[in-house]
Design brief:
Amino acid/polyamine transporter I; 18 helices
Length: about 500
């Protein structure tokens, strides 16, 4: 039986089901909480190794993407987040702009990228940190640690935001402390041992590195819209969104740029790997506190070992808080999609006790666990292959979701021109078109670059991720099959949902 459906001018759902479930939400997110949410999402140390593995050009392309993507993206999210400050913001933006079918597919792509990322890139990077600084994890121990990492993150999303935000705030300050310690130690190491150095010509851009780094940079620089997923849980979204986006943009520049440049300065090219680049750099520079360098790597002892272990623990906490931040936002977005008939109705239920979508949270944990197990099996435990295949899938699903989110800005400027906009992209409709066009362009580039690594470069197979040399079609199947299943599932739930929700 269909449910009567209405919405306010800001797109907020106003059905009996929506009123009942959204009435359980708790308005707990203050300005500092939202800032921590954005920065934990943006500053993900799992991508550092991949960026630095491309050498000094990663700095060149980071600056370039900052100008032509990061800035217009920040402006876009500020306008939409203040004009439509509702729960499940990105889902609502896309639905108002392009309809419920596009929004349903977008919400699923946006959501599923996060448990894939948690169970994939974040988990294997955390395992690498334990392997490098504490003890090698083999066999059952590897799986036990992975499960503990995944489900600790899931637990943080299940409990009320008052509990979950502790993980975010700790993650934020650990990031700041880790970057500060790393930077100071780099200066001490440079003063004692000198630096590997990077000649000016190494920063010169090339098309091959552009193709390899653009998808990673795109993924590393998104996250501004996350607090808008919990728009009705924010104390003052219209005022807090612009301030937090500005502050997080400045914080991202510092917390990304400084460590990347430091790694490039102290590590020779042979040690700049996708998975272990940052960890190798930490181990090397911390020898200034106690340790030595051998032919097989750095060995820490005394104060160096203690500080190295603390840095490794901090590194693991930053990975965990990144996953928690993204799941907190994406899970809420998918719960709103369920309220609107674009996902199973059971996922729309908000916990009376915690004020969170527990069914979605637990489902994310299951998907993350399956991802971890499948990726380990498909790659036969090869850490480099595991990391690259799941990171590529997480980025491609995420980038495809933004293909609808970014153009929503200009569409809503016309279709919902009457909605009050406390903040507008400066420059009128022309500037809004430019912001949408630039951000959408980079979403397209990132999507294509992940679905077919090396597109536009020669030889294209030279751009295949680590561990996949001469295995083009095997790699492509690891991407195409999950994507096809995701799209089919999104379409199925949309069609099924039409039976209980009247057309808009």
């Amino acid at each position: 039986m269909s449910e009567e459906r209405a919405r306010g001018e800001d797109g907020a759902l106003d059905t009996a089901l929506a009123r009942r479930e959204k009435g359980k939400l708790r308005v707990l997110i203050g300005r500092m909480d939202a800032l921590a949410m954005i920065l934990c999402a943006l500053i993900g140390f799992d991508t550092f190794g991949k960026l630095t593995s491309e050498g000094a050009q990663s700095i060149t392309w980071l600056l370039f993407m900052g100008l032509v993507f990061f800035v217009p993206y920040a402006l876009l999210c500020t306008e939409l987040g203040t004009a439509f400050p509702v729960e499940g913001g990105p889902y609502v933006w896309v639905k108002l702009a392009f309809g419920r079918f596009v929004a349903a597919i977008t919400a699923l792509l946006y959501w599923i990228s996060n448990p894939i990322w948690l169970g994939g890139a974040l988990t294997i990077t955390a395992v690498a940190a334990v392997d490098s600084f504490f003890t090698p994890l083999d066999g059952p121990a590897r799986y036990l640690f992975s499960l503990l990492f995944i489900w600790t993150g899931v637990a943080a999303t299940v409990f009320s935001f008052n509990v979950g935000k502790i993980v975010l705030l700790v993650g934020l300050w650990v990031r700041v402390g880790l970057v500060a310690l790393f930077t100071v130690t780099t200066l001490l190491y440079a003063a004692t041992h000198g630096v590997h150095g990077v000649h000016l010509g190494a920063f010169s851009p090339s098309s091959s590195v552009f193709v390899a780094t653009t998808p990673i940079l795109f993924f590393a620089l998104v996250g501004f819209e996350l607090p808008s997923e919990a728009g009705e849980e924010m104390r003052d979204a219209r005022h807090d969104v612009p301030v937090n986006i500005m502050r997080s943009a400045l914080g991202t520049i510092a917390l990304y740029g400084v460590p990347i440049l430091a790694v490039l300065l102290i590590l020779p090219p042979g040690q700049l790997t996708s998975l272990g680049g940052f960890l190798n750099a930490v181990k090397l520079i911390f020898t200034v506190y106690g340790g030595h360098v051998t032919a097989t790597g750095s060995v820490l002892h005394g104060a160096g070992a203690v500080l190295g272990d603390l840095a490794a623990l901090g590194f693991i906490l930053t990975l965990l808080s990144s996953g928690v931040s993204w799941l907190m936002g994406a899970n809420r977005g998918w719960a709103v999609a369920a309220l609107d008939g674009a996902a199973p109705r059971s996922f729309a239920v908000i916990s009376e006790r915690y004020g969170t979508p527990v069914a979605v949270d637990l489902t994310a944990g299951v998907v993350a666990t399956v991802t971890m197990l499948l990726a380990s099996w498909l790659t036969s435990g090869n850490a480099a292959k595991y990391f690259s295949v799941v990171l590529s899938l997480a980025i491609s699903t995420s980038a495809m979701a933004y293909l609808a989110i970014f153009p929503a800005l200009t569409r809503l400027r016309y279709s919902h021109a009457h909605v009050a906009r406390p903040y507008r992209v400066p420059g009128g409709r022309a500037a809004a078109w430019v912001a949408s066009a630039l951000t959408t362009l980079w979403a397209v580039v990132a999507t294509v670059g992940l679905l077919w690594p090396g597109v536009g470069s020669s030889p294209a197979d030279a751009s295949l991720p680590a561990g996949w040399a001469r295995q083009r079609w095997t790699f492509e199947m690891t991407q195409a099959i999950p994507l096809a299943l995701t799209l089919a599932l999104g379409a199925f739930w949309y069609v099924r949902g039409r039976r209980r929700v009247a057309p808009a």
